[in-house]
Amino acid sequence: MISRRDFLQVSMAAAAAYGGSGFGNWARLAAQQRLTQDDLLAMPAFGNVSLIHITDIHAQLKPIYFREPSVNIGVGGNRGEVPHLTGAEFRKMYGIEDGSPSHYALSSGDFTALARGYGRVGGMDRVATVVKQIRSERPDALLLDGGDTWHGSYTCYQTAGQDCVNVMNLLKPDAMTFHWEFTLGSERVREIVEGLPFAALGQNIFDAEWDEPAELFQPYKFFERGGVKIAVIGQAFPYMPIANPSWMFPEYSFGIRDERMQEMVDEVRAGGAELVVVLSHNGFDVDKKMAEKVTGIDVLLSGHTHDALPEPVLVGETIIIASGSNGKFVSRVDLDVQGGRMMGFRHKLIPIFSDVIAPDPEMTALIDAERAPYADKLSEVIGHTDTTLYRRGNFNGTWDDLICDALLTQRDAQIALSPGVRWGPSLLEGDPITREDLWNVTSMSYPEAYRSEMTGEFLKIVLEDVADNIFNPDPYYQQGGDMVRVGGLGYRIDVTAPAGQRVSDMVLLKTGEAIDPAKSYTVAGWASVNEGTEGPPIWDVVESHIRSLGRVQLGENTSVEVVGA
Amino acid sequence: MRLTRRDTFGLALGAMALTVLPFRANASVEDMIAEFTGGADIGDSGVDLTAPEIAENGNTVPISVDAPGASEILVLAAGNPTPAVATFAFGPLAGSRMASTRIRLAGTQEVIAVAKLEDGSFARTAKTVKVTIGGCGG
Question: What is the pLDDT of residues A65-79, one digit of tens each?
Fold first, then answer.
C-alpha cells in the first residue's frame, strides 16, 4: 500500500508546480500558458487495472462555472473531517497554494476572480477527450458513472433524459447507478434502462411490493480487465422515495441495505473476484460508514454529495474516491492487483479545465446536435446579474436567495421555501442570465411552485425535519443535500443539538416579529414531494422575477445564525 | 382519487404533526419485556433485527427478525400508542428461526426485538427507525 506521502507527491505535483501567482489577477491567457492538457492528464500508468469515475453530471453537457461551498459542516464523527473542510482549511489540509489551479477547482475563496482567470470547467466533450486519453494508455480501463446523469438541464427535461443517454452512450461507460434518474418516472426509466448498452446496477434497488431485488437492475457485474477479474457492485441513492416523490416510482424501494452489500461482496469474492469495486450514490459520509461495516470492498467510488477530494480517504482496507459533480472532474484510479489482492494504487482527480483540455470533436458534434432544436430557447437572455450566483452551501446560496425572492414577490407570500439541492452551476457577476442558466438550477419533473398556508408550529417541524436529515450525527440517518432554503424567515440553528431541538428564534424578517406557532403564514415553495401539488413551474416564476428586475443584485444573506459548527 | 392541493396539504400536515420529536418509549414497554422474560437477565447478542434506518413509508415498514435457536421472538414498537407488534413462536422442528412482516410506526422511534432462546436465556436488540417528511435530496 502506498504511503500518504508517496501519494501526495504523485497527485499534488501538479498543484505545486503551477501555483504561486497570488490572488485574483490571473489573465486567462497566463493561466492557459501555465497549464497544459498534458499536465492535467499526465500520470504514469501503474499496476494492471485502471478505473475511470465520473458522477453527478446533472446533465451539464457544456462547460460551466461551479463554485464549491464555503459552508459544509460535518457532525458527529465527521466534524472537521473531509469533505467537511472548505476554503482555506481545505487548501491547508492538502497543501494547495492560494490562487493555484487546484484552489480554483477544489475550494471556495476568491471564486469570481479565479473564474475569470481559469475559465469554465467541465463539458462532456472535454470529458470525452480525457476518457479517450486514458483508454489510449489503458485500452480496457473501466468507465463507471455514479448516477445523477439524466437530470438537470433544459434539454434533459425536454428530451426526458434522452440527450444525456445519447451522450453517455457515445462515451461508453461500463456500468452506472442511479438517483435523480428515477424522477423521470418508472416507465421512462424502464424504457431507457432496457436499451442501455452497459450495466444498470443497484444491489439496494428492490421491488416495493415484494421486498425482493428488482428485476430490472443487477446487483453487480463481473469484468475481466488486465487479466484481473473485477466485480463492480452498484449502490443507488438509498433515500429516493423520501427525498424525491415516491409516487413517480412506486414500484421501487431502496435503503442502505448494508447487510445485503456484505452478502454481495462475499458472493463475488466466492465467484472469483480479485478486485471488488462499489459504484455508490450513498453520499460521502454514508459511504465512509458503509466501508467500516462492510468488509472486502477494495475501491468505493462515492457520489451524491458532490464532494471532490484530491486524494482517496482510507477506511480500513478500502479506498474511497470522491469525484465532484457537474462534469467538473474525472477520477482515474490505477491499481495493482496480484493474486486476488489490491497491492497498491495511484489516483488522480483530474479537473476539467475547459479552456485547457481540447474538446473531442465527435462528442462536440453530438452535443451540439442534441441542443440544436432548442438553441433559441436556450440562449435567450432574460436578465443580467451583478452578483455571482451559486448554489452550494449548507444554508444558502445566491441562486436560492434569488429563487426565494422570486417566490415571495411573484407568489405574494410572507415566507418562501426552496429545496436544499446541491446541483446547479454558477454565474459570474456581470454575466447575462440565459434561460439555459435558469433551468440549470431549477430543472426537474416536479417544479410546481405552490402557495399555501402553514402555521408557525408546522414551519418549525419542517425546519427540524430537514435539519435532522443533514445534521443527524449518524450518517445512515442523513439523506445528503443541504438545509431547506428560506426567504422572509430568519432562524437560529444549533447543529449539535438533538433532533427536534436544533432550530430556535424563528422570526418573520419583514416585521421582525417572532414566528407564532399558532398563527398561519402564507408560504410559497417548490419541489414538493406530494402528489397533486399545484402551481406554475418554478422556472416561470423566477424568469418573471428576473425580467422585472432587469439586473439581479443580492445583498449578504444573514437570515440564518449557525451555532455549534 | 384526485387530491386537491388543500387535501394534499391536509395529508402532509397530518403526517408531519407526528414527527416533531422522536417518540418517547411508551412506559409499558419495559413491563411487557419483563413479562416476556419473567424478569430474567437479557443478553445483547443472539437476535438480529433488520429494519430501514429511515422509513420510506411509516405506514408500512418492512422488518425482519432472526434468532438461531429461538423459541419465541417478541417485537415491540416502543413509541407506538400500542407498542405490541408481534410475538413469533417457533416449534422445535422449525428450520430457521426468522420472521418478517411490515409494521406501522407513528413516528421516529425504536423497534425492539427480544428473543427467548431454547436454552432459556434471552437476547435483545433495537434499532431506531426514522419517520420523516423528506423532500430535498441533493
Answer: 999 999 999 999 999
